[in-house]
């Protein structure tokens, strides 16, 4: 065949810049027209028996000139063959057009799968696509069915081309972003996109169905699509070759879209630098699409921030402040298995350390017979790092003075070691610690009790009472009722801050006096000889469930 004359077949049938009625009619031009032209030309070449190596394929506008024999769809020296004269039948048959020869035309039939592959691969943007598709069809007509298999060299290339086109079609539907124009006029929405392959017509049909009566325009480097709400107009004229002033006006109008800032704010808010996976991001949203997306200009900066330390924050700032959903689970079961911290300053058993200045431990002689346990540090205690140095501390020391107890003979501590607070302007207001926080600090309170081993523990307030007992208890039920707690006595009274919250001076005096009486009672119990524990009377409070820790727990 090397001495045979080469023929040039010109593929025609691009969009005619005309309006096609309806969605289905609108996608009939462009590549669909070129595919129909190639099909008709291929059928005539098959009828003439021209092998693939003797045929040169070119598209309208790029056909070679010179000594080669040009064969155009409507200029064959015989009756013209319309692309409608050889439709694909329902079973995938591709009937042959009658060539300019005598004799019966060959009956060319292909499978549905091959017909679909040929139509998809026809949208693959490559100057060799038509010659390759003809080679595939020629091999099929010669009885070589392996050409439709992905295991064949040509079949593998055909499948790869079709897959790439389908991917490009999916990408265009996923990454086209419309902008609303400002002012009146049509189209209402504008978009610019640069597809890898000739998928504009199919994607335009999709958007026409999805957007209903809203008018829009999609421009690409190789053509444009316009939907006026009723009919779809396709053009093979590159959008950038249109009047420059018109394109500039369209893009300027898109910049006035008032919805885009809302979308960008939402996109920033859902970005989590701790979960950033750059490889997955670029796989699912390739970098080449970023320039056409409104959020594309945000992504590089967010990635850079994640690399520079935002990933360590674990959550975006706004997400980290959101309240979590409560989970119905026992607090003990929810605690992770981890070694106990070696020092109070390293404690991360709950979240209070995040907003506290420092942990506040107890103070006093380790041989003290009397231990006072409060609730938690206050604002001044958090800053000073010492328990009961604020207003509540002044009330407590006044009660100790009335009870005749020197402050330096008592061990003073709190059930919770970090300050829990809420902001009110520039002030930090006390907030009662929760059960989980009290239980998280039980490790440190038990350590203090085991180290000091007081004879009497005076609890100041309901939180301290629950922390010592290890269970829910009513403060009023324990007032003026000392109970045995292992080897020690437990005396419950009001917290000194309660006296600061009442407005009546008489009531305040009653509260301070009650605190002094409880401390005095504790001093008397601590000075009395140790007595064996007695079973509680029927009228006494419920016995505590957590005794003093054993000496083995000392650190």
Molecular structure report:
By secondary structure, the protein is an alpha/beta fold. It has helices at 22-26, 31-48, 112-121, 129-141, 153-175, 200-211, 244-254, 260-270, 278-284, 299-307, 317-320, 331-334, 379-384, 391-403, 435-452, 462-469, 475-478, 496-501, 505-527, and strands spanning 7-11, 19-21, 55-59, 69-72, 179-180, 189-192, 216-220, 223-227, 231-235, 370-374, 410-414, 421-424, 427-430, 456-460, 483-485, 488-493. The strands form four sheets. A six-stranded mixed β-sheet has the order 2-9-8-7-6-5, sandwiched between helices. Strands 11-10-14-16-15 form a five-stranded mixed β-sheet, with helices on both faces. Strands 3-1-4 form a three-stranded parallel β-sheet. Strand 12 (421-424) and strand 13 (427-430) form a beta hairpin. The protein is elongated. The termini are far apart. 34% of the residues are buried. Residues 15-30, 62-105, 535-545 and 548-555 have low confidence and may be disordered.
Summary keywords:
single chain; 555 residues; 16 strands; disordered C terminus
Concise synopsis of the structure shown:
By secondary structure, this protein is of the alpha/beta class. Helix content is 37%, strand content 13%. Residues 15-30, 62-105, 535-545 and 548-555 have low confidence and may be disordered.
Q: Output the radius of gyration.
A: 43 Å
Supply the number of helical segments: 19
The major sheet is characterized as:
6 strands, mixed
Instruction: Please tell me what the overall shape is.
Output: elongated
Distance between the termini: 97 Å
Mean pLDDT: 78
**Strand arrangement in the largest pleated sheet:** 2-9-8-7-6-5
In percent, how helical is the residue content? 25-40%
Instruction: Count every beta strand, where a strand is a DSSP E run of 2 or more residues.
Output: 16
Are there runs of 5+ residues with pLDDT below 50, and where?
A: 15-30, 62-105, 535-545, 548-555
Strand residue percentage = 5-15%
Helix/strand class = alpha/beta
């Amino acid at each position: 065949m090397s001495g045979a004359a080469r023929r040039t077949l010109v593929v025609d049938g691009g969009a005619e810049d005309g309006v096609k009625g309806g969605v289905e009619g609108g996608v009939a031009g462009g590549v669909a027209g070129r595919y129909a032209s190639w099909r008709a030309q291929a059928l005539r070449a098959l009828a003439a028996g021209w092998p693939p190596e003797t045929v040169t394929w070119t598209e309208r506008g790029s056909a070679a000139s010179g000594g080669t024999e040009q064969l155009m769809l409507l200029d064959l020296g015989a009756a013209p063959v319309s692309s409608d004269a050889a439709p694909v039948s329902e079973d995938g048959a591709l009937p042959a057009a009658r060539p300019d020869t005598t004799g019966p035309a060959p009956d060319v039939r292909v499978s549905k799968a091959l017909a679909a592959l040929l139509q998809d691969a026809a949208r693959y943007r490559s100057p060799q696509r038509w010659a390759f598709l003809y080679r595939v069809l020629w091999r099929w007509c010669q009885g070589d069915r392996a050409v439709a298999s992905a295991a064949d060299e040509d079949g593998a290339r055909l499948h790869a081309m079709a897959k790439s086109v389908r991917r490009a079609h999916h990408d265009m539907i996923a990454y086209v972003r419309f902008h609303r124009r400002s002012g009146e006029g049509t189209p209402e929405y504008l978009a610019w996109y640069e597809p890898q392959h000739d998928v504009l017509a199919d994607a335009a049909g999709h958007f026409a169905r999805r957007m209903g009566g809203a008018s829009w325009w999609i421009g690409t480097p190789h053509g444009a699509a316009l939907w006026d709400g009723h009919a779809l107009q396709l053009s093979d004229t590159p959008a950038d070759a249109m009047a420059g002033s018109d394109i500039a006006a369209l893009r300027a109008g898109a910049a006035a879209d008032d919805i885009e800032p809302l979308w960008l704010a939402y996109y920033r808010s859902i970005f989590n630098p701790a979960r950033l996976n750059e490889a997955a991001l670029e796989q699912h949203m390739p970098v080449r699409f970023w320039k056409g997306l409104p959020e594309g200009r945000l992504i590089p900066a967010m990635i850079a921030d994640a690399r520079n330390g935002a990933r360590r924050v674990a959550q975006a700032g706004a997400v980290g402040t959101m309240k979590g959903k409560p989970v119905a689970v026992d607090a003990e079961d929810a605690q992770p298995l981890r070694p106990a911290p070696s020092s109070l300053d390293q404690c991360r058993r709950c979240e209070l350390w995040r907003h506290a200045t420092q942990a506040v431990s107890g103070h006093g002689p380790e041989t003290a017979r009397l231990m006072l346990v409060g609730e938690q540090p206050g604002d001044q205690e958090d800053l000073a790092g010492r328990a009961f140095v604020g207003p509540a501390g002044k009330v407590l020391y006044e009660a100790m003075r009335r009870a005749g107890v020197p402050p330096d003979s008592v061990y003073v501590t709190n059930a919770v070691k970090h300050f829990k607070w809420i902001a009110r302007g520039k002030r930090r207001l006390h907030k009662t610690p929760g059960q989980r926080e009290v239980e998280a600090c039980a490790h440190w309170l038990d350590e203090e009790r085991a180290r000091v081993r007081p004879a009497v523990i005076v609890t100041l307030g309901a939180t301290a009472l629950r922390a010592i007992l290890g269970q829910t208890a009513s403060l009023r039920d324990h007032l003026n009722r000392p109970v045995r707690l292992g080897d020690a006595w437990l005396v419950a009274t009001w917290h000194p801050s309660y006296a600061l919250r009442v407005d009546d001076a008489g009531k305040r005096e009653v509260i301070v006096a009650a605190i002094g009486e409880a401390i005095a009672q504790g001093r008397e119990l601590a000075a009395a000889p140790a007595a064996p524990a007695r079973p509680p009377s029927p009228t006494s409070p419920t016995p505590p469930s957590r005794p003093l820790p054993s000496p083995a727990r000392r650190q």
